[in-house]
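Batch job 17 of 40 flagged for manual review because the log was empty.
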Amino acid sequence: MKLTIIGPWGGFPKVNEASAGYLLEHDGFHLLIDCGSAILSKLQQFIKPANLDACIISHYHPDHNADIGVLQHALLIDMYVTGEKKTLPIYGHNLDQTSFEELTYKDQTIGIAYNPEQLLQIGPFSIKFLRTKHSVPCFAFRIEADGKSLVFTADSAYQDAFIEFAKGTDLLLSECNFYGNMDASNAGHMNSYDVAKLAKAAEVKKLILTHLPHFGNLQQLIYEVGEYYKGPVQLAELGDIWTI
């Protein structure tokens, strides 16, 4: 599996960057994980929108789904230009029916509801779900292919259930929206110590911090995580590519 960071920011995109969005590729299949603000602009540095094979959405906050509409328009315009018809499946939960219905647009995209209680197969990827602790219904993903695994926490306050869910994963892509001396739980997010506790207990092989804060010295997050978790840890940055 190859993971490309498209958007690492929480809440809103930093200047000339994007909020949550990640491109996962394997065996020629291209899966977009979340599609937040400015993702479409940055995604085109790596792939044409029409070449996506699927998209999956963790929840319906704008920093994770704001660019669904412009993605749909990009696919519509591509159809007019090339004459090729293709319908992109966008997977999301249906606990917010209004937002779920917006995943379907003409013949360009079709919303498909995932059942968090069941294993989902999208192309070469097997996906398990864990409901997170957030202000709206939100789901973490454990994505596996050819014996390798990626866990994406999406947005969440810390919960012990993450430990078993992420156990032994090759790569933990974890939100880290607050510094260690801050209470992140009331905001439905994790601080650096929460993430370190999770990564250590789950014995993850590599940790990438994402959904980053717009304040403070981000290198402090690395330092604070390293107080507890001794494995490799890095900040997510636009254009970073990781082989899992």
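Reviewer: the log was empty due to a logging misconfiguration, but the result itself is present. The mean pLDDT is 98. Unflagging and moving on to job 18.
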